[in-house]
Design a protein that fits this description.
Layout (H helix, E strand, L loop, with lengths): L2 H9 L4 H20 L7 H26 L5 H25 L3 H32 L12 H17 L2 H38 L1
Length: 203
């Protein structure tokens, strides 16, 4: 899957780190587009979705290029993860600046919903990093990894173009799922550590 695009990117001289940077730039463009959404210019919402999806595509492509052409590195993984966190923060920041969740939750609760979604997004990644640093695999653990979160936000944003409160409800769903994912991962780590402790004791 996406092998043809990966080969083309490689021929054009795009290394995984360069693709990560391109994805980050598109995420920043998405954040700006979200921040510029107004009742007079709702089309910025669709532009934000477009840039968001291109950023997500780039985030997938950097890993494929790295694996296909044996360009994986510890720094590359670290660099990509750092850019992803800044990208997530920027996009939620754009939504927060424009008050796009307020149509669903009001001027008080709207920003809180966005902040909770952002915190959950950060913690999903943090829990994985901490667990894997302890030798516990976390791939596919939890409801809402980054790809799923981006897809939910894109769908909610498109719906929000036609009915703005839909975006606020989508952000609330992201807040719920991301924080549930954190709980899932915490429980997974607890069970794995308990299992390892039992295995060490019996041996």
């Amino acid at each position: 899957m996406l092998a043809t695009e990966a080969k083309l990117a490689h021929r054009l001289g795009f290394t995984p780190n360069r693709i990560s940077i391109v994805g980050f730039i598109f995420a920043l463009a998405s954040a700006v587009a979200y921040a510029l959404v107004t009742s007079e210019a709702p089309w910025f919402l669709l532009l934000g979705v477009f840039f968001l999806l291109v950023s997500g595509f780039s985030d997938t492509m950097d890993g494929i290029v790295a694996r296909t052409f044996n360009q994986t590195s510890v720094f590359g993984g670290f660099f990509d993860a750092v850019l992803d966190r800044y990208a997530d923060a920027a996009v939620y920041g754009g939504i927060l600046i424009a008050g796009l969740a307020n149509a669903a939750w009001g001027a008080f609760w709207g920003p809180i919903v966005v902040i909770v979604a952002l915190a959950g997004s950060m913690m999903v990644s943090y829990t994985r990093a901490r667990a894997e640093a302890s030798g516990i695999k976390m791939e596919s653990v939890g409801f809402a990894e980054r790809a799923e979160r981006m897809l939910i936000l894109a769908v909610a944003s498109i719906a929000g173009y036609f009915w703005l409160p839909a975006l606020g409800y989508g952000v609330a769903l992201l807040a719920l799922l991301s924080n549930l994912t954190v709980i899932q991962r915490a429980l997974h780590v607890y069970r794995e550590l308990k299992r390892k402790k039992s295995n060490n004791n019996c041996c």
